[in-house]
Each structure stands twice: as C-alpha cells, then as structure tokens.
C-alpha cells in the first residue's frame, strides 16, 4: 500500500495474507501469513519463521521502490532546506545557538519511526550520547559485507544463509556515525532494524516493544559479537588498545571482556543468611544495569507537584534495592548446613561500580490478569548522584569516584507496555535535547527533571566540581 506518495505504510499488529515464492520440493506457490512493508527489500513470514524476497522475478517492485525512494529523498531534502531556512531566522529556543559569540545551527539528527520502533530509537539516541561507548564504535573499521552486483544494496537475509551475513556491530556503528553529523534531519535505521529482526526473534514485527528489554538484548548481542574477530583483528585487541577501558575492566559477562562490560559492567555481592542456623552464603553477580522497584508506599503519587505524602526519590528506590530483605515462603533458601530449605534474609552490596550506571525503574508489573504501569513520579538528580553508601567497601573509594552525572533519560508515555510512546532526553556538549523519533528539539534542565523516568543513564564523574549530592 502506498499512501500520498510515501514509501512506508506499516500496520500495527497486522497480519496480511499473501502468496510468496518460497522454495519447496514441488517448487509451488504457498499462501502464508507475512508481516509486510512495501518499502522493504524483504518480508518476514511468521509461518515459515523466515525472511522472503518481496519482489517479482523481473524485479518490478524494486523499480517502484527506487522511484519511491527518490521521491522520499527529494521530500526530505526539501524539508531539510525548509528547516535550515527557518533556522536562519530563529532564536535560541528554535535551534539557533550562540556559542563563543558565533551563531551555529543545531546538528542533531533524529531517527525515523519504522513502525512502532520508538522503543529502539529512544535507546539508540541515549547510547549515542554516552561518549566513551559511542566513540569506540565510531572508530571501528568499516566492514563491507557485500560486493559485486549486490554492492550498495541490501541483501535478502534468509534462514538458510545463517547469521554470518549480518553484523549487528557494523549496523550499530553505521547508525551512530549517522547521528550528530548534521547532514540530515532524520536517519532511517532500516538496516539495523533488519539485523535486529534476524538475530533477535522477540522483536520481529511492528508491535510496540519494551525499551529496557530491547536495550538488554542489544547490549548482550553486541557483547557476544564483539568477542569474535573484526576484519581479521580480534576485538579484544582493539579493546586493549584503549588502556583506560582495559585497565579498569574486571567485569566479564559470558566470556571475555568487551567495551560493553568495560563501560556498563559492574559487580553485585549477594548475601543470603539462614535465619535458623545463621549460615551466610555470598556470591558475586556481574550486571549491566540495575532494575529498581518503586516502593509500594509511593505508587499513588503520580505527579511532582501533587500534595500529600513524601516525594519518591531515586534514593528511595536504591535503598529498597539494597536494604536487608526477608525472603518469603516461595523463595526459601537451600541451606547447606541445615540441608533443607529455610527462611532467610537477602542483601545486595555493590562490589564494583561501572563507568556508566544504568538504572531501570520497574514501571510495569503483572497483576492477576494484565500488566499495569506504575505512573509514579520519581525525583532524580541531574548531577552528583552519590553511590558510596551502597558500596561493599566504601572506605577504598576516592572522594569523587562514586559521584555520577546524568547523561540520558528514556521516558515511556502512556498506560501500558504494549502501547504508548518512548522518547529520550540526552545531554550533548552541555546542552539538553529531546529526541522524539524524527524530531529533535532543544530543551532545558527544568523540563528534564520533571520527566517520569523509565531508564536513567549516569556517567561517572571525572573532574572535581561542586554539586549537590543525592
């Protein structure tokens, strides 16, 4: 379906019956149910659990696509010129900035929504503003996966090809390189999204997904792929070349360390005590993020300015996570001394803090029949988040080594995990921006602190500066 000359028309949760050419023993046409995007070079068939070619034998649909792509590029070029013209006559609040006495235009690039992909866009924009993490990928050498007649065109990813022809790291690198270069108002992360479909089956289709779940899958798969070779060079060697990352990285998750664990990796100490005999059990758990409950006593306080009762703060959520807790009857601990399951207590300590502390607020929880959202406003600091009191050995930490400053916030707008909309706030070169798919606007700190955060990204402070602590 093509509407008003646009190349994309997605259908939320749509299953469109169509006949596709999938080779069988009799080489016959089979009618299956597919998730179809007419602008795409391939279509996903739910029944076959595979990608199929979305074209005729003569490549007629490809010619239509190329024509529509030219129209779309022309439309975006005109839109970009129009916006640049507006910038010439706009003020600070409309993307024209005064920097060192000279006027500069906003260079931020949005990400086009490919059909309920705001969950992915919000995470990508947040990660793109974590400088150490982003710069590592942007400095990686490019990998050319195709050559000859297929150069410059997307290949058809099918199950028979396996996963060797796709690279999440490469498409992630290309996406990061496209952001903040100022050459376009919006970038379409189609190639990255198709690789996500290929290697992360949970995210196939165009239904709304959970941004936190996507972030975890993305980081885990980047970590796994980075442990392999890159253009003949081991990525562990590339990581070792960055001494500041390699020296501080002692957190390994699922094998060798990578930039993912070097930046986001921390270590928890989990202490469990048997209430019958007093036996203590300790184990260390690596983590890439911390998922924090919003304490039940705050769940009815929805707005920052609502009167009555104390305000829920990020410190309340962190305290709830690390405080001593008695396990209920469904979580009885197997005591090795008593040789049976006993009542016990549990407590978390942070044994090692990461360079980037990612905090996920558990806003979605299951009831008897459905998944509800906790819409409570949680107050969080922009600067000076002090994590020292949650450390296992705080005396071994420097005065400023436990302070963190906020760099990005992911916000969920709406009532349910399967609906609503995701946007992100992120700091770039001392300015805050709001990323809403293709639209990027300047904002201020007062707007950021009022947001109902879902995922918070804090960066370890490097230089001394006076600030309030949490």
Automatic annotation (TrEMBL):
Record domain USP: where = 109-461
Q: Which InterPro entries match?
A: Papain-like_cys_pep_sf, Peptidase_C19_UCH, Ub_carboxyl-term_hydrolase, USP, USP_CS, Znf_RING/FYVE/PHD, Znf_UBP
Q: What class of enzyme is it?
A: hydrolase
Indicate the segments forming the UBP-type domain, all copies.
1-71
- Gene Ontology biological-process annotations: protein deubiquitination; proteolysis
According to UniProt, the reaction catalysed is: Thiol-dependent hydrolysis of ester, thioester, amide, peptide and isopeptide bonds formed by the C-terminal Gly of ubiquitin (a 76-residue protein attached to proteins as an intracellular targeting signal)
Put simply, this protein is called: Ubiquitin carboxyl-terminal hydrolase
Whose protein is this, by species? Eolophus roseicapilla
């Amino acid at each position: 379906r093509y509407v008003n000359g646009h190349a994309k028309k997605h259908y939320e949760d749509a299953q469109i019956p169509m006949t596709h050419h999938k080779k069988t023993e009799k080489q016959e046409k089979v009618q299956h149910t597919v998730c179809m995007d007419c602008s795409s070079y391939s279509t996903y068939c739910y029944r076959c659990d595979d990608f199929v070619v979305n074209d005729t034998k003569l490549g007629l649909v490809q010619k239509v696509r190329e024509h529509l792509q030219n129209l779309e590029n022309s439309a975006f070029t005109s839109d970009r010129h129009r916006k640049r013209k507006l910038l010439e006559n706009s003020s600070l609040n409309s993307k024209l900035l005064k920097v060192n006495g000279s006027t500069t235009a906003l260079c931020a690039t949005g990400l086009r929504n490919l059909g309920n992909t705001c969950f992915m866009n919000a995470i990508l924009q947040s990660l793109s503003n974590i400088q150490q993490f982003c710069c590592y990928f942007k400095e990686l050498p490019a990998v050319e996966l195709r050559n000859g007649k297929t150069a410059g065109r997307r290949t058809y990813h099918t199950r028979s090809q396996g996963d060797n022809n796709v690279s999440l790291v490469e498409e992630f690198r290309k996406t990061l390189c496209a952001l903040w270069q100022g050459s376009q108002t919006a970038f379409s992360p189609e190639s990255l999204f198709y690789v996500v479909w290929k290697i992360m089956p949970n995210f196939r289709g165009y239904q709304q997904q959970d941004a936190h779940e996507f972030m975890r899958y993305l980081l885990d798969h980047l970590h796994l792929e980075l442990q392999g070779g890159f253009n003949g060079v081991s990525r562990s060697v590339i990581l070792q070349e960055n001494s500041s990352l390699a020296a501080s990285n002692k957190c390994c998750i699922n094998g060798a360390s990578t930039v993912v664990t070097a930046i986001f990796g921390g270590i928890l100490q989990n202490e469990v005590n048997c209430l019958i005999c007093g036996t203590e059990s300790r184990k260390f758990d690596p983590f890439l993020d911390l998922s924090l409950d919003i304490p039940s006593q705050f769940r009815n306080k929805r707005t920052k300015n609502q009167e009555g009762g104390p305000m829920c703060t990020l410190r309340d959520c962190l305290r709830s996570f690390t405080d001593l807790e008695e396990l209920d009857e469904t979580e009885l601990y197997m005591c090795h001394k008593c040789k049976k399951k006993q009542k016990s207590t549990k407590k978390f300590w942070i044994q090692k803090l990461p360079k980037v502390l990612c905090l996920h607020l558990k806003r979605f929880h299951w009831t008897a029949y459905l998944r509800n959202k906790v819409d409570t406003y949680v107050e969080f600091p922009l600067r000076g988040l002090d994590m020292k009191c949650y450390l296992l050995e705080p005396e071994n930490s420097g005065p400023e080594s436990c302070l963190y400053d906020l760099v990005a916030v992911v916000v969920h707008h709406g009532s349910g995990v399967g609906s609503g909309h995701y946007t992100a706030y992120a700091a770039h070169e001392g300015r805050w921006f709001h990323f809403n798919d293709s639209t990027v606007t300047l904002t201020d700190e007062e707007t950021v602190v009022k947001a109902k955060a879902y995922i918070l990204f804090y960066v370890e402070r490097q230089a001394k500066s006076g600030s309030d602590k949490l």
